[in-house]
Amino acid sequence: MLRWKPWLLLLLLLTLAGCLGAPMAPMVETQPPPPPPPPSVRQPDQIILEEALRGRAMSDAEVVELSDRLLAAGNSALDNPKTMARLEILLLKALKSPDKRQRPALLRNLGIIHYHQGKYKKARQELQHSNELNPRDARTHFYMALLFTHQGEIYQKQGKTKLARHQFNRAAIEIEQSRKLAPNNPTYRQKLKQIIRQEQ
């Protein structure tokens, strides 16, 4: 038979009754959760985009790389309005960064999105601003050529041949500039009419 000492029994009863003060909470370490792993090259870009919108930290350079891949010619993301809208949000967020080194590429990619969404006025403003910041980007010149050609076709349909010709001349200058800056890119070596046909 177990014999309890009276003082031990009293201590046990007081502890159980809570008379010795507030019960102690279990000790739990309160460290912040570990940061999510950086985007992996193996992860599909759609997943990386989703995670970035949910709060995964990405540098402006990573945002540019991701958007470059998603906006590449032939990527199915160009035909997905939901993906384009999400990418637009990510680019707008990155443009608020105090670091301005990636600003030309961010603006260019935002202009590309707006071009594919049919928001030509916005696209033109963003691409022109990007070109002012970095006039040596072939892709910016290429999309400027597409915009000038689009505007030329509108003028042509309206019977404004002089204005149409002016836009087509500007498009030719832009496409030539993109060819000079990236001579090995086969897209820029095509004739402008072929490029427009592909875009449509």
Could you explain the architecture of this structure?
- The longest helix is centred in the C-terminal third of the chain and has 21 residues, at 161-181.
- The chain has helices at residues 6-17, 45-53, 60-70, 81-95, 103-116, 120-133, 138-157, 161-181, 186-189, 192-199.
- Helices cover 64% and strands 0% of the residues.
- The protein has two domains: 43-120, no CATH class; 135-200, no CATH class.
- The chain has 200 residues and is an all-alpha fold.
- The protein is built from ten helices and no strands.
- The model has no long low-confidence stretch (mean pLDDT 83).
Q: Which word captures the global form?
A: elongated
The helix count comes to 10
- Measured as a percent range, the helix fraction is 55-70%
Low-confidence sequence ranges: none
Q: Rg from C-alpha positions?
A: 30 Å
Most strands sheet: none
Order of helices and strands: HHHHHHHHHH
Number of domains: 2
The structure class reads mainly alpha
Query: In what range is the share of β-strand residues?
Result: under 5%
Distance between the first and last residues' Cα: 93 Å
In short:
The protein has 200 residues and is an all-alpha fold. The chain has ten helices and no strands.
